[in-house]
Each structure stands twice: as C-alpha cells, then as structure tokens.
Fold this protein.
Amino acid sequence: MTLETENTIDRLFRLGKTPHYLTPRTQIIRIMKQVTDNPCCAGCCWIGRHARVCHRIEEPKNTMTNCNNREVVVVGSGLGGLSAAISLAQEGYSVEIHEKNSKIGGKLNFLSEQGYTFDLGPSILTLPHFFERLFARSGRKMADYFSIVAVRPHWRSFFPDGKTIDLYPEPELMAREAVKAGASAKSVECFLDYSARLYDLIDRGYFQEGLDSTRDILRFYGWCALPRFDPLRSMHSGVARHIQNPYLKDIFDFFVKYVGSSAYRAPAMLNCLPTIQFRYDLWYVNGGMYNIARGLQKLLGELGVAVHLNSEVTEFRTSQGRVTGIVVNGDRFHKADIVVCNMEVIPAYRDILKEDATFLRSLRKFQPACSGLVIDLGLDIQYPHLAHHNFFFSGDQQKHFDSVFRKKVLPEDPTIYLVAASRTDPTVAPAGTDCLKILPHIPPIDPEHPLQLDDYTRLRDRILIKLEKMGLTDLRKHIVFEHFWTPYDIQKQYYSNQGSIYGVVSDRYLNFAFKAPKHSSRYDNLFFVGGSVNPGAGMPMVVLCGQNVCRDIVRWDQLT
Ligand SMILES: Cc1cc2nc3c(=O)[nH]c(=O)nc-3n(C[C@H](O)[C@H](O)[C@H](O)COP(=O)(O)OP(=O)(O)OC[C@H]3O[C@@H](n4cnc5c(N)ncnc54)[C@H](O)[C@@H]3O)c2cc1C
C-alpha cells in the first residue's frame, strides 16, 4: 500500500467521529489496498464519514468444466437476465438469451428525439461495485466498458412552502442542510447510524447470500438476530423515531421510492436504503444510463453468449416437473437443460406456463409495486435552480402514500420525481435547454377498475401545474417535445405485472418485503431472476440477483 493510501485512511479516520456507520478500519485498509493494487475496482473510494467503499473485488473466474456445456436459455434481457447470462457463461455454461424487444436492457431504456435524450427507465445508479464484479470475474475492468461519475447534490427537495433541502454524502455539507431544515445534524447522524446497522445486517445475508425465505433467514441469522431488523416498526416509524423535523422526515421516508412502495406499509428494515446512497454514493453513467446495457452487450459478445432479439417466448414446454425447452414467436422450439426466466414471476406462471388458479392464488402476496407516469419533456429553456435529481414534495405525503398504495387511486397531490440530467451531462439536450423526465408514482393497473387515457392526461396536467407553482414558471409554454407513458405502455413494453416499475411491493402486511424465490417450486430446472424475486427491484439488486441465481444453479447442478 502506498504512503498516499495510508495517509488517506488516516485522514478518513480523523474525520470520523461517529463509529457506527464507519466501515471498520481493517476493512477500509483491505479495500484501499484492493483499490490501489487491483485495477478492476470501480474506483469508488471513501470521502466522508459515510464510507463509500468498493468491497469484494472478485478474482477472474476459471471457466468450470463440471457443467458439461449444459444449455441455458435466459428469457428476457433486463439487467437481471443479462447478469445471470454473463455469470453462467463465466461458469462455462452455454447460454443464449431470447428478448421480445428489439434491444436489450428491459426497463433500462432510452429515447432520443429532436436533440433530446431521455432515460426512459432508471436514472440513478447505486452500488456500482455489484456491476464491477461482472467484469472483474472475466478479468476485465468496468471502466473500459462504461464510465460513471458521482452526482452532487444527490437530491434536491422542493417543498410547497418554498423550502429547498439538498442531500449530500459529505457529513459537513449534510449537517449544513439539516440545520437549514431546522433540525439538528445529530438527528441525521443518528438516523444514518441506524440505517447503516440495518444495511450491514441485510447485506451480509439477504443480499450477498441470496436468502429466499423465512427459513433461510432464520438458519443464517438465528432467532436472536431478529430484533435487529426492527421488525415491529414500519419504515416511517423507523424514520420518525430518529427524526422529528417534518422536511427531513418526508425526505427519508421517500427513500422508499427505490422499491416503489409506501413508507407507512414497508417494514422498517427498508431504512437500510439511505446507506446505499450515503455510503456508496449516487452515480450517473456518462453518455446516459443505457451505456450500462451497451457495456454488458459487449461483454456478452466476448463471452460468446448469443442474444436473439425480437424473440418472444410464448410457451415453456414441460414434462415430469421440468421445462424441456421454450417456444419462440409461437412456432420455433429450442431445447433447454436449464431455463432462467427474467419475465416476472406472476406473468410467467399465468401467461406462459398457464398454471391453475390455486397455484396463482399462492402468489397473491407478491403484489406489484407501484407503476409510474413517465413524462419526458424537451424544453426551449433551462430552469437553473434544478439539480440533476429533484423531488417536489406533496403537501401531505401520508395522503399521497395512502392514495397510491391503499386506496389505489391517482393521487391528487403526488410527490414528483424530476430528472434534469443535463446538469451532469450537457450532451443530453441542446445548449441552453433542458430535457426533463418527470415520474410520479401511481398505482399499478387494476384490471377490475381500469383507468382511461383521459384519467392519466388529467394527472399529467395537474403535475405540470404543480411544478409551475413550485418554481418552474410557464413550464407548459416551453415544451417543444413531449413523450408520455402510462402503466399500460409500461406493461406492454416489458410484460411487467400490472405495469409495475419495481417488481413486487414491499409490504409488511403482505410479504414483509420478501419477493418470490429464485428457484421455481413447480419445475426443477426453472429459475427466476429480476425485480419480482429476492432481493427485488432496482438496477444493482437485479444485477446481484443474476449473480446469486448463477450460484444457486451451479450448486443445484452439482447435486443433480
Ligand atoms: C421509469 C422507471 C424508473 C426507474 N428508476 C430506477 C432508478 O433510478 N434506479 C434503479 O436502480 N432502478 C430504477 N428502476 C427499476 C429498474 O429499472 C428495474 O428494477 C430493473 O431494471 C429491472 O430489471 P429486471 O431484470 O427485473 O428486468 P426488466 O427490466 O423488467 O426486463 C425484463 C425483460 O424481459 C423481457 N421479456 C418479458 N417477457 C418476455 C418473453 N415472454 N419473451 C422474451 N422476452 C421477454 C422484457 O421485454 C424485458 O426486456 C426504474 C424503473 C422504471 C421503469
């Protein structure tokens, strides 16, 4: 380790006064050594007291031979499917992907029109070291495939009374914002300590080991560890126990956005989410998020994985509790030894496997997370007071959650997420203009009470008027390009369950934030990957899921 690295570590520890959300010194030394010795690291190292670290740098894989070149078919090329395909190819399996759309990436999608480029899906990258592993295991560097840059501030929050608060991972800057909100910096620190304890607990087992059930959890953690998950509280009451300030309470409650659920119904352990951002930072992918898909496509090519586009899987042929192969576009049969399904669990069992009603009822606890109204606007001006990521809060956030997740109606006054990516990347809009992605969370499609286009259009109008009142003066007059997706478009595009954008809802009364298991209980050689199975949605989680499902398949294969 160089002297410079040692000095950096010492500086970090001089800065750190609160012990709990610090990564242990020994771990940081190991990590910094890996960062300096191993060029495969994403290069995300620590700045503030909420450590940003790269951990678990992977050794390149030796291609295994014990899988006897077994043929794996991956259905769908969302990030989970891509991660599983890459991981399995690295294990020596012969892998092919069938994707119904004309490009890979699933919800990681983009639109380029009239000089404006929009990320139609994800716009926030977190936990980049989960992606780095995919490259490191083939002895490559992620930075040679796509580059990332940390975003500042993380979020800008606008409140109806005119107050604005920014989020920063640097403790000194965050303390300043806490005081601006009228809160003590200490309360934020205590909350982040609590969040870090939850994250470390969850990461060790549920994330990294890919635990899939209460039985797995009990076996891994033991009964005595259960109180540490704060199981009797909702996410909101976990926030409220530490933070009384109404602005900060709304902000930390809204970290639930990462899983498209309600802070009042999600379990308190979801308060691990701020640590993902404060410790590991929030990133943008240079040139647009879709460059992740382009990078993974290149890696797939190098690994010899065949990708079939416009190739919709319409049937799984089964025999004696196994899937024998898939039927593509209604006629072509492809044999498979193992099938990894990136299509969501409920649509796959219902529409492709045509399972009976009793079995489908057993999946009812895996209700869809929220959907969204995706509004993309090309403007002829810029609103300089916007940050890259902005939240325009509802006047009554509890009511907003209640409308979307309990009453399942379009919210009157939603909290609105707005992305102005040109703050970090000027190439996404012509000079002096803005391209905005506006995303309020709304209920998924209710097949019994379907909404009409008019209902969504009225919500769109309400949202633009609210934004005008909250500082985007004359917004509607400055629109030169508009693109608009309802939950029906999202469902049609990705076959997601009821147009969900984050897979399965995290709800303590339904599923305690567990998603469906990765290994099918019905078909021995069928596995699932993506936002509808554990650990759930969000880009890093589905990428992790792909790595975990590969490990499960290798173990299962060794036993069969
Ligand atoms: C608007 C929006 C904003 C988001 N914001 C963020 C964010 O900022 N940060 C973040 O981390 N995450 C975000 N997410 C969530 C994230 O995008 C998803 O959790 C993740 O990309 C889902 O990956 P997946 O592996 O589950 O597959 P999906 O992306 O759901 O892809 C599944 C793929 O399978 C294909 N498929 C389905 N059925 C078939 C079939 N029968 N035959 C062949 N192909 C089939 C589909 O076409 C699709 O390509 C956002 C999502 C949306 C929609």
Q: What stands out?
A: The longest helix spans residues 185-207. Residues 84 and 547 are 6 Å apart (CA to CA). Confidence is low (pLDDT under 50) at residues 1-57.
